[in-house]
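pasting for the record
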Amino acid sequence: MILLEVMLGTLLITMSGIALIALIAQTVQTVRSGRETERQTQSAAAALERATQLGDAELAMRVGRRRVGAWDIEVSVPAATLYAIDVHDTLTGATVLGTMVYRMRPELNGQ
């Protein structure tokens, strides 16, 4: 009877160890995935930051979708003085980041 209890105890400890190893492996994978997503988001943010620094004339020339580095940058004009800038993943086409910028046009300002 004691031998059976020892075998069951060993089995339970082994199963717990396997479950712990699986949990640790999944945690490591989740951390890696999170770091990769953060790196991609930072890269997209840098591309968006560069696009938001463009003036009215430069944005007007870039209306449409263009490949810039590892990203597709889409510039659209929803209103006369507003530009919508979206950063898309080139593989899936999903929007990663986006913003709208206001640019005063000289002809609308009376200058």
